[in-house]
Amino acid sequence: MTALASLFLLAAALPAQLPLDAATLSRLPAASAALTAHGQTSQCDGVWLADLAAAAGLPTGDALRGSALRLAIVAEAADGYRVAFTLAEIDPKLGNRAVLVASRCNGKPLETRDGPLRLVVPGEVRAARSARQLLHLHVKQID
Fold it and tell me: What's this model's pTM, rounded to 2 decimal places?
């Protein structure tokens, strides 16, 4: 099979978006991470983005190779703000960058200005990729 044919088959099998509905999120393992933004630290709960991607059928672990290394997840917020993460970056066997899809912080559901979902990227110096009011997680092939 040629590289072009392999790329076509991979793209045909990919979901356009990752599901963010409560039923899907509740089936995934619970996770938590600290969010430090604007001088305040909160403990947030949700699911790992890597687990959500794997549950949606995106390649992970040893299957994450070749053209799959050019896959990205673009998070889109209600105000149009967008941030991106490659699958390799969030995969536990490659980049191992933790990204939390949070629904609660400090034991409470997120306030309207932040939720109902937000991304939490622990360890980043600035919380610029911890997008608030998360609406969509688009799956994109980087050319």
Answer: 0.89
